[in-house]
Amino acid sequence: MGTAYRTLVLKYDLQRLPPEAAEKIPTLLKLQEEFRRWTAEWVKSGGALPPPPHNPLKHFGTRLLHGLKVLRWFKGLKKNGIKVEKAEMPLVFDVQLRLNSERDIGKGIFVDMPKKEVRVRKLGGGTLQLPLGRKAEEWILARAKEGGRPVLAAVWIGASRRSRAVKLYVALTFKREAASMKPKRLLAVDVNALHNGLAWAAVEGERIVARGVLRPDASKILHLQKVASRLERICAERDEICDNAVAARKRIWRILRSWEDEAVRRLVQLAIQHRAAIVADVPVDGSVRELKEGNYSPEKKALLNFGRLRRRLKGLAEWHGIPYCEERLYSTVCPRCRRKMEELPNRRVKCICGFEAHRDEVPAMWAAKLYPKLTSFSSSPSSAAPAVRARQPARRAARRLDLRHTARKRAGEQKAVPRHAPSPGRI
Ligand SMILES: [Zn+2]
Asked: How far, in Å, from the CA of 370 to the mean position of ligand 1?
């Protein structure tokens, strides 16, 4: 059994809150300020400071310390104490989910499914009632059906990362004890720059059982990016166009985000269907950054943000008890003789030993070649498996050096930068 977490973040536009909810916002902001001052002191004390003595701050402090003890996503924060200070700590609550007619036991956040409502309490005077949208409702019911239950909630007011609008956020973290799957196959996933898609292959022993490529609509995205760039140029001279430019960027981001979510769902579905552990090609630290800072065409830059995609894939795999690991699966190194291959037009690769293939096919061949090594972890979940632990920094640095001279022209080979410390802004 492995413990897995998933978090739903509800966003509320402050301008559109019902009047009785909007009234409570100044109180919430004041508490948030006070709590952040306390967390700053707490960080300075190296975590030695006890929770604040009086409610409502006592509740948030107690829940925060509890969360640090039990929830893995808090670990990154704890390790990087200083980041907690910078990351603007949310108010932390305990939570209850009412699916039918369960008794209300007075937790800080009460998610009332029959009433389609989220109640935020412990604010020291009055309850903040927020509506629950249809999508959020479906998400919660699906998690509950899978055996997940809410364990912690966080509330904060802050500026959206994408627009300047200030919003109210409510994050609900669900926990599940997932039985670890005993895989009989591997699902090799090669994350390319998105216009080349995600190549996947189900591998059993040395045999490739099934495979495919998941692709977003790159031509549509590139077109929208051109439109957005044009609008941005006009915006420099005519202010009234600026809103359209922002809207165009948001639209691109939304398309990519929903594609990523869909791709991750599909990959996890494939892993379940094939009873396969997921082996994802590990991005090379720094290479994406270099690409973004380099001369790579600006239109394609947005197609290289796959840190989020990788985090989602790992998280969803864990939620379903699917072993997950990351391993370099080459697409331009010969799986027969390990020589660097020549890159031909149409994404084909050729080795002087005579081997030739489409480069999307090569990572699966590497997975087949590495099968005994990669399946040595088969009975344990990803985080507990020494055989598949994250790569050593030295190896990673060495690999980065190897790739540097070809980084710009080989966009398809580059991978995203892993994030180690989750920020409370997006638990
Ligand atoms: Zn060869």
From this structure: 16
Give me ligand 1 centre to Cα 362, in Å. Answer: 12
Q: Which of 349, 369, 371, 352 is nearest to 360 (CA)?
A: 349
For the residues 266-270, what does the mean pLDDT come to? 96
pTM recorded for the entire structure:
0.74
Q: Domain ranges for the chain, please list them.
A: 2-178, 185-409
**In the predicted model, is pLDDT for residue 152 greater than 80?**
yes
Cβ atoms within 10 Å of 65's Cβ, excluding its own: 16
What digits encode the pLDDT tens for the residues 344-379? Answer: 998 899 999 999 998 888 888 888 888 777 776 544
Q: Strand pairing partners for 204?
A: 207
Cα–Cα dist 160/96, whole Å: 27
Q: What is the pLDDT of residues 92-143, one digit of tens each?
A: 899 999 999 999 999 999 999 999 999 999 888 789 999 999 999 999 999 9
Q: What distance in Å separates the CA atoms of residue 123 and residue 402, rounded to the nearest whole number?
A: 55
Q: 336 CA distance to ligand 1 centroid (A)?
A: 5
In which region does residue 116 sit, left (phi positive, over 0), alpha (psi from -120 to 50) or beta (all else)?
left
The structure tokens 């420099």 sit at 236
Q: How many Å lie between the centroid of ligand 1 and the Cα of residue 365? A: 12
pLDDT > 80? residue 295: no
> Which sign, positive or negative, has the C-alpha torsion 387, 391, 393, 394?
positive
Residues near ion ligand 1 (Cβ under 5 Å): 334, 336-337, 339, 351, 353, 355
Rounded to the nearest angstrom, the distance between the alpha carbon of 61 and the centre of ligand 1 is 60
**Distance, CA of 263 to CA of 37 (rounded, Å):** 41
